[in-house]
Amino acid sequence: MKKTAQKSSREGRIVNVSSEAHRFAYSEGIRFDKINDESAYNSFGAYGQSKLANILHAKELAKHLKEDGVNITANSLHPGSIVTNLFRYNGILRGFCNTVGKLVLKNIPQGAATTCYVALHPQVQGVSGEYFSDSNIYKPNSQGQNMELAKKLWDFSMNLFEAQIEGERERMWRLSSKGASGFSSSSTAEEVTQGIDGSGLTAIVTGASSGIGTETARVLASRGVHVVMAVRNMAACREVKKAIVKEIPNAKVQAMELDLSSLASVRKFASEFKSSGLPLNILM
Ligand SMILES: NC(=O)c1ccc[n+]([C@@H]2O[C@H](COP(=O)([O-])OP(=O)(O)OC[C@H]3O[C@@H](n4cnc5c(N)ncnc54)[C@H](OP(=O)(O)O)[C@@H]3O)[C@@H](O)[C@H]2O)c1
């Protein structure tokens, strides 16, 4: 937005849709110490708190934008009481909206007026940090005018946001940092076997009917390894084999039945493998 405002020389406008319900916020305004505390949750208090936060955020943001000298304003507003889907989770309010509400509340075109007024009207040019209602500047309650509270909310949000970003940065670093092998936790099976010729080798891959077993079988086969997929679910494995051969027509892959929970099945598999005459270079 900053770039656009500068390039276009047209004022940018940030509009927070708040509500008169900010007056029903918890008595302390924002519960910084119980922000995610479900036991202290109260739907009216929480809604009021979020709407108060909309007002405080616009006020503090307006201050920052002004300090940065950018041509962007930030305001908040109450759109009115309107028959919408907002009350779908509250049976009593929903009932009211769908009956008497239709007669006494704003309709949707009226409900969108203040938002559009603040977003576009020339009268609002240069106006920032204000709260509007019925397309006019209006006064929020004392908490909604409390710039100390606005700064506290800003700092609190920035700390939450920065902690999140720091965690994300660390995760990305861990994913991309390469160890002594030259590979990292984001390396793929194809990457770590790139250029390796596995022809002449035979591998038994257990659990090859799905997940990483399937991918292991596919990648080893693509490197020329003769892969014996030792699986319990032969039907699933046949599909895996079909997909591998479709992708790598000269792949040497075969399915053999093995249920690792049955010693009899293990013995049968071992004897069948032995009689196949294949060497065994890799067992996984
Ligand atoms: N209606 C009123 O009387 C009234 C009064 C004062 C203030 N307001 C404010 O006006 C604004 C609009 O309300 P409305 O009456 O138009 O309510 P609405 O009909 O319930 O519309 C709310 C819109 O917000 C979307 N939304 C909700 N949670 C979201 C999320 N987590 N991520 C993305 N989108 C989400 C909804 O999408 P889905 O359809 O996907 O849920 C829906 O499009 C709200 O901020 C409300 O607090 C309304």
Automatic annotation (TrEMBL):
Family matches, as InterPro entries: NAD(P)-bd_dom_sf, SDR_fam, TIC32
A Pfam family hit: adh_short
Superkingdom of origin: Eukaryota
The protein, known as: Short-chain dehydrogenase TIC 32, chloroplastic-like
Source organism: Citrus x changshan-huyou
